[in-house]
Amino acid sequence: MSPDCTAMIEKNYQPADIESRMSRIWEEAGAFKAGRPERRHAKPFTIVIPPPNVTGSLHMGHALNNTLQDILCRFERMRGRDVLWQPGTDHAGIATQMVVERQLMERQQPGRREIGRARFLEQVWQWKAESGGVIINQLKRLGASCDWSRERFTMDEGLSRAVVKVFVELYREGLIYKDKRLVNWDPKLLTAISDLEVQQVEVKGSLWYLRYPLEGKTFDPEDPASFIVVATTRPETMLGDSAVAVHPDDERYAHLVGKHVILPLVGRKIPIVADEYSDPEKGSGAVKVTPAHDFNDFEVGRRHNLPQISVLDQEGRLALVGNEDYLRGLPEESEQFAEEFHGVDRFAARKQILVRLEDFGFLERTEPNTHMVPHGDRSGVIIEPYLTDQWYVDARTMAQPAIEAVRSGATSFVPKNWEKTYFEWMENIQPWCISRQLWWGHQIPAWYGPDGKVFVAETEEEAVGNALGYYAEQEVITPEQGREMALDPSRREGFITRDEDVLDTWFSSALWPFSTLGWPEDTNDVERYYPTDVLVTGFDIIFFWVARMMMMGLHFMGNAPFPIVYIHALVRDEKGAKMSKSKGNVIDPLHLIDDYGADALRFTLAAMAAQGRDIKLAAQRVEGYRNFATKLWNACRFAEMNACVLPSGFDPTNAKETLNRWIAHETARATREVTEAIEAYRFNDAAGSIYRFVWNVYCDWYLELAKPVLLGEDSAAKSETRAMVAWARDEILKLLHPFMPFITEELWAVTALTSPSPLAGGGGEGGKPQTPAQEVPPSLSLLHRGGANRALLALTPWPALEGLTDDAAEAEIGWVVDLVTAIRSVRAEMNIAPATLTPLVLAGASAETKERAQRWNEVIRRMARLADISFAASAPEGAVQLLVRGEVAALPLKGVIDFSAERARLDKELAKAEADIKRVDAKLANEKFVANAPEEIVEEEKEKREAAAARKAKILEALERLKNAA
Fold first, then answer.
1. What's the rounded mean pLDDT across residues 393-400?
2. Among 434, 536, 630, 842, which is least packed by CB within 10 angstroms?
């Protein structure tokens, strides 16, 4: 091969140029399309993307989640599977509605209420068309190999039909119903919100101790026998109290159970009940029970059949006048109080009520109290537990098959410990509130007749027909009126009205694994691609999404939507703190891609994705893996400059040279390790294996050891080594492709100088080239600058190397590697200058070791900085002894280093390491520190201890060597 070809690979690795070019090539080739003709008989592999909000922008959680999914998809695609990675976005009800409302306000246009529902929804769809694809393009920048031709949206026509069908069927089965229960209510957005949209914020507030007078006693603030003390953080809700609860085992209050108190300021008589919810150790041990304004109190109220008295309106103001639940049974003078406080904001009312309580002697004392207060993550206001009519799913009934699916092993969690979390939540599941008081979303397919009767149907025509039939049967309308209304829509205007609420976003997301495949109309893809193969998601949506997909999949499809649920951890900042805008520690993945390339970010996330362990991300780590990409780039340039080309039909099993047989052996081993790790979802182990193989084995050892041959005279050994360098390089590109798709596809393209078969060098049996079952279509191959035409790397078979294990080659080259590594380690420990050449004595060496030492004499001396290599029966005096594969290698260092000074230096370092360990141990033994310090600080201290312990072990090892050498 002529050296003129060496200009093929650019001198410098430039990720941005490569990534934009490769993205275009993949898209033009349709590389990621599912169901291609050449794979029609292949086994399918399906993953559904957790649909990001259409309003969203790529954050680090997305980057991790989609990197791991992409690794699996690219891996299985190369293994010959018909891969469908289903992409799409979620309509994100509240978030999208807020974005469009804000846009209207900024443009000084009329607001939502002014323009009406129909025109507002037009505005939302217009916004979606203009701005809704941002995150999809960002996912493409990351390298996500989804079948983008199948992109879906939870509000598109097909998915909307699925949502309506599911709602109607569940309603008819009695699994959807309407009920009055407490919900998380946002007084600013005026809608119920899910638990996931509630952010718990630590607030420095107060705990107020209130005296509730006992019935039949003359209230006297100085007489404890005349009242019972309750503690509360929300005195404004006391107006809705319907009981006081004490623990059944609390002897202080046993004599009061069954008696009554008179509610201060209000005059309502309420019972004292015994309930285990009350904690004798907390506050006074007695708690006020307000079923309409507290989730725990709601359950206490149900257990004791207490009235639910709501005293707030939707905007968080006191609603007392005309409130029959509040006024029932109150003395007349209470009406004046109601008029005085009616319409007052909840927090203003709190202050006024406290003043009034103090004036009458009902406020015993106030204590500072730091506690968690729920806030709306969108509105930022304090969320109110609010009693209202909403639509619910009977989650308890639907959860049973989903629990059994995991218990039986039909679906498994990775890591396994998440199954416990899943069971705990599912076995204590509450009714699922699915209605939202919004305009953007799937409008609930329920209509109300003139008397409030509900008609649930898939279409308005069906609902009208059902209503007309019902009211004709009830003789509310005559048959003639019914016929007229059926024929003339204008005659039935106002006869039935549609429910204005929309469905919780999670309702449509729960159908994602099968609705995206065309269910219920088109079932061909459902039959081929459902159930999916694995779900990759974060732990925070196990309950909101994973559990609900399980319920819906089992109910409507008859089997679970996925056999494996891989739960990845959280990406934190470099100190282990959770990222948040308020802390200013958010790391933008797009900035990292701009600075270091998508491949470096992807590899960083994969390398750190240990099961069950959060990722501490620092830009330096990403920079380090960019350097890894540069190392690979330079290794490929080195191969090219040395005319290392893969000949057609090359078979690595025929290699004669020990060094080449060794790299074949190591390549096969790396292939096994990477394959097994990906199959087991141990992404960090897979990344670690390929990293070590590329950087240490291939670059640092194989290419270094091969240099004398490559730079020597032409020979059979040189030709074989050139071919083997190219072969191993190609296998590396295949193994690394799922992790670093851009750089590997580029290098695969620019190194394709001769490769008549589109799959040359692929992993057939014995590493022989595979003959493709079908010719690769021109659209799926690349005509490269070198003139060769071969398949895209993304569609090239995964290595399946057999017959390459060579223990003899590993024993020889492995010995050279271990010997040089051990010598380098000692030189570093003993601070021996690189220019200082030291002798090496192989003590009691076997005949085999002597032969190896003689064969590799020049290489070992050059790489280990040795003056010479000799043999002796035993190690000379004053030599540091190394055990290399069971035999002694000795470095005579007398005169090279000052043993006393070196020992003193190591003793000093040992003392420092021990002091560091002692300091950390003292901190970790301090219960107060462990309990109060942020989690990331405690973790950081543990890591410091691990580092100090490792340092100590190395120092002790070095000291032991010195001792033996003295």
1. 98
2. 630
